[in-house]
Amino acid sequence: MRSRLMFAWPIAVLMLVSGSMLGCSEESGGQNGSGGDATLTTRGALSSKVRGMDPMDIGDTTSSSVASNIFDCLYQYHYLKRPYELIPSVAESMPTVSEDGLTYTITLRDDVYFQDDECFTETEGKGRKVVANDFIYSWKRIANLKNVSKNWWIFDGRIKGFNEFRKYTEGVTDKKDVDYDRPVEGLVAVDDRTLQITLTKPWPQVVYMMSHLPTAVVPREAVEHYGDEFINHPVGTGPYMLTDWRRGSKIVFERNPNYREEFYPSEGSEGDKEAGRLDDAGKRLPLIDRVELLIIEEDQPRWLKFVQGDLDIGGIPKDNFDTAVTPSRGLTGDLREKGIVLEIYEDPATFWYGFNMEEPLLGNNLPLRQALNLAIDRDEYLKLFLNDRGMPARGVLPPMLAGYDPDVDSPFTVYDPELARKKVKEAEAIHGGPIPPIVLTMGSTDSVARQTGQWFTRAYQQVGITLEVDYMDWPSAQEKVKTKSAQMYAMGWVADIPDAENFMQLFYGPNASPGTNNMNYQNDEADALYEKLSVMEESPERVEVIRQMQKKVIDDLPCVFTLHRKAYLLRYDWLRNYKPHVFGYGLAKYRNIDAELRQQRVGR
Amino acid sequence: MFSYIVRRLLYTPLVVIGVLIVTFMLFRVVQGDVSAEYAGKNASAETIAEYRKELGFDKPLFINSEAASERGVLAVFDSQFFHHFKNAVTLDFGRARVSKQKVSSLLAEGAVPSLTLTVPMFLGTLITAVTISLFIALVRGSTLDTSVVVACVCGMSLPFLALIMFGQYFFAYKLEWFPVFGYEPGFAGAKYFVLPVLMGVFAGLGGDVRFYRTVMLDEINADYIRTAKAKGQNTPRILYRHLLKNAMIPIISKVVLAIPFLFLGSLLTERFFGIPGLGYLMVEAIGQRDFQIINAMTFVISVLFVLGNLATDVCYALVDPRVTLN
User: Cβ contacts of residue A430 below 8 Å, gap of 6+?
Assistant: First the structure.
């Protein structure tokens, strides 16, 4: 999974302010041509370590953003077009879908080769062509229970016969003994270039999943050659190859000479041409030869490296925000003079404080849940903890997802302490006496978590509710939530795909804990709407169903919706073709460097 | 002395077992099952169960009586603790939970940067602090002595983090004397270590000078110093030949016991200057509940500590003829 569960709200705040989310920690541009070297090098920073580079095992944003330069999926997002649009990657074209929506036939390109590696013994290290069976093998690795992949959720119950294959692996003693040639009814390589997938029920979002990094193709030879070390020896088909990886320090990629013929897009969205983002239209990708990523977990050195011009893109640490951004959301003069550009974009995320709806005090008392929502001044919260980088959330869906409604009818997700006090009275009447203290599980013990806890305690105290905050480490909080023993807890969700279903499944009854519905929210009407929308193709009718389901959730208020966040990024103007992309990874291939301008600005 | 060393070495396993028990209790019993966390946010119950199996959480903590009744008496040791114990004594630390890298490789990779940082830092602090202390002891009560003591107290009061942040901002960013951040193996990377080492030496001076000053003051008024002075020996000879030699016992205690911890690196320095050492690794492992790494590090440090203690005792005997090892 690419990111995405934010148990510890304060951690999420820190990640945001330190620019570690969604592209902030991605690749950037630079040039090292000072010594006459013509190699274009892009230089950036990661704010956390890469855990590993086996797609099957990847479950975090940083690893995804790095490994996406090496691996390819069947599909990818168009770099420039908005709304986000999928285009073929290793596939030659978009899939052909049968009338019943169950069978997807995908033709592969004929010119996709794995990078050269010693694992290809038969071809003396020369990378071989990718065939349909490679995808089936790669996906079966995820299904193999012995591999304990984090990403089985992608396929669970979706493809005919795949769960049976997983069941078979359960009985195998060693993961090496799993027979990957064992047939799966719903996964057939019709020929080397044709892959046929048969679903158990219609699932239009399957194409998005085929652009999700865990479904990337890996060569069986490499997995067998490197065994457990494959996670550290990635062999893919992507635009770059890993040439140096010093854990906790630096990662270097260089252009993959076997990379297929792929070209920079020649069409984009409004404003792309004016911004110069179509200047490289039609040029062969990747545009840059070398990607260098430093791993800098602390804000100060990352910021100093950026303002020194050693990194070409960076987030804005919370402590430096006021020196970088003016109250009118412009860039301060010093930074503008250095050629730094401010990029602001919406992040497809919603944060909330969830209630355990199976817990009687909160689950059976709607006025209490309403009061808990009404007591929160989201604007103040944003100012205090996020430098105002976000917007109050009044419902489930963040902006940019189909179904998001800025004028959502949600009278209880606004700040109204007077009404909150009245609702507390109603709640007491239902409860049959004063409301006992509510316990908030906070999955962090750092200072931001404690400040947040104090802020919530004060907000609730003002409307007559006592809040007790239980600070603990993340796994302990997770354990409490997953075992339904947390009464109220901090959480959030960042969309994996540009589809509202990704959010609505969090409110689907059968997904209750330990599934993704951690609020254990149950509403038959909402469930029926979810079942309907999850098999519908994108359409105005589907948007309507999504909004109906969202309305049910908002009426029931199984959480305190807090905010949708905005990302603030800084980049130097010598980094060309930069366009924020909240779903795609592996975008270094599109970026370019104006070496002369860089030389002029920082002398290197 | 030989029999003493052998006897002390025989105690080592007992100390290490004690450490293993404490580590196990802290990270296995108190912390609990981390399978759900490792399995990811969308994990099914079967995936979590498989993780539990892989991590060994499906076994009893200490005694597996159920397995013993099914598979024979030896199966009683098929428990979390005995696996933990076996892995440690056979030096089979397995793979890190998160990165899946071999723990032995991680330790080997991290030891070089850590020692490259901590050894010069340690030696720099030691030599500077001892030298300053020797001279300060000679001028006890003077303005210079008072000034140094005040400076030491100020230095000790200054948080290391603040010092690092200031040094990095001022010397590396503003003055551009050093790189802000980075690491390269080999001599090419020496430039990245200069500022962190200087920061470390500076941060350590306050406490060390005060300690060694006290040690020197205990000796400076001793009879043998007066005798040396009466015999007309010059000051350097008195300092290095007599005073320093007699002050060696507390110095050795402090120095030898500090050596094992050099392997632990320096978390803050490593993190702020981008040095991929063991301090960084250890703290990250604690944060990620990566028991394999924690186990290995604790084991290595405890063994080194025990050996360090032994080395201290041996050194006492070597530098002070009054000490005998029985």
Answer: A364, A365, A367, A368
Alpha helices of A338-446 — where are they, by DSSP H?
360-363, 366-374, 378-386, 417-431
**Strand, coil or helix: A284:** strand
Q: At residue B288, what is the residue type?
A: Q
User: Of the CATH numbers 3.30.365.10, 3.10.105.10, 1.10.3720.10, 1.10.10.60, which one belongs to the domain with range A349-565?
Assistant: 3.10.105.10
- Measure the CA–CA gap between A345 and A397, rounded to whole angstroms: 16
Residue among B98, B101, B272 whose CB faces A298 most closely: B272
CB contact under 8 A, B100 and A232: yes
Q: How many CB atoms lie within 10 A of CB A194?
A: 15
| ipTM, interface predicted TM-score of the complex | 0.81
CA–CA dist B75, A384 (Å, integer):
57
pLDDT per position as a tens digit, A465-495? 999 999 887 767 877 887 888 999 998 888 8
Q: Tokens at residue B39, please?
A: 């399995």
A294/B99 Cβ within 8 A: no
Q: What is the dihedral of CA A431, A432, A435, A437, to 10 degrees?
A: -90
Picking from B36, B45, B99, the nearest residue to A52 by CB comes out as B99
DSSP 8-class letter at B170? I
Q: Is B308 on the interface with A (CB under 8 A)?
A: no
Q: What is the pLDDT of residues A569-595, one digit of tens each?
A: 999 999 999 999 888 778 999 999 999
Contact B118, B266 (CB under 8 A): yes
- Please, are residues A166 and A152 in contact by the beta-carbon 8 Å criterion? yes
Q: For residue A298, what is the nearest residue in chain B, using CA coordinates?
A: B272
Pick from A449, A438, A587, A601: nearest CA to A44: A587
pLDDT at B44: 72
- Is residue A591 within 8 A of residue A31, CB to CB? The reply is no
pLDDT of residue B89: 78
Which pair of tokens denotes residue B232? 């007309």
Distance CA B73, CA B83 (A): 16
With CB atoms and an 8 Å threshold, state whether A52 touches B100.
yes
Query: Residues near A37 by Cβ (< 8 Å), separated by ≥ 6?
Result: none
Spatial distance between the Cα atoms of B311 and B272, rounded to a whole number of angstroms: 33
Please name the member of A5, A152, A300 whose beta carbon is closest to the beta carbon of B47. Answer: A152
Q: Which amino acid is at B316?
A: Y
Outline which parts of chain A fall under CATH 3.10.105.10: 349-565
- Whether residue A83 has a cis bond before it, omega within 30° of 0: yes
Cβ-contact A530, A484 below 8 angstroms: no
B77 phi and psi angles, rounded to 5 deg: -85, 0
**CATH 3.90.76.10 location in chain A:** 75-226
Q: How far apart are CA A376 and CA A381, in angstroms?
A: 8
Determine the residue type at A507.
F
Neighbours of A11 (CB within 10 A): 18
How many other CB atoms sit within 10 Å of the CB of residue B137?
23
Read off the amino acid at residue A104.
Y
- φ, ψ of residue A173 to 5 degrees: the values are -70, -45
pLDDT tens-place string over residues A89-117: 999 999 999 999 999 999 999 999 999 99
Whether residues B33 and A479 touch (CB distance < 8 A) is answered with yes
Is the distance from CB of A393 to CB of A350 less than 8 angstroms? yes
Specify the pTM.
0.82
Where exactly are the structural domains of chain B? 2-89, 103-319
Alpha-carbon distance A187 to A240, whole Å?
29
Q: Identify the architecture of domain B103-319 in CATH.
A: Orthogonal Bundle (1.10)
**DSSP structure string for A557-577:** --EEEEEEEEEEEEEETTEES
CATH of domain A75-226: 3.90.76.10
- Ranges of chain A whose pLDDT falls below 50: 1-37
